[in-house]
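dude i think i finally got it to work??
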Amino acid sequence: MALAALRQGTYADDVEADIRQGWAYGISGVPFFVIDQRYGVSGAQDPNLFARALAQSADESQVQT
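look at this
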């Protein structure tokens, strides 16, 4: 199924959009994680860092609603 999608270019437009968004964010390497379009975490980080970033994003989203 995945091989067929690659051969047919099923998600090519989505991949190109992701690449353009990465350039806009200034991402130059992987892994890179974007959380809620506000926070970026680059490289392999301690799980606690991800937990803090996710919690902060969730807290800020609740304040805005």
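Residues 17 and 23 are 10 Å apart (CA to CA).
im so relieved honestly
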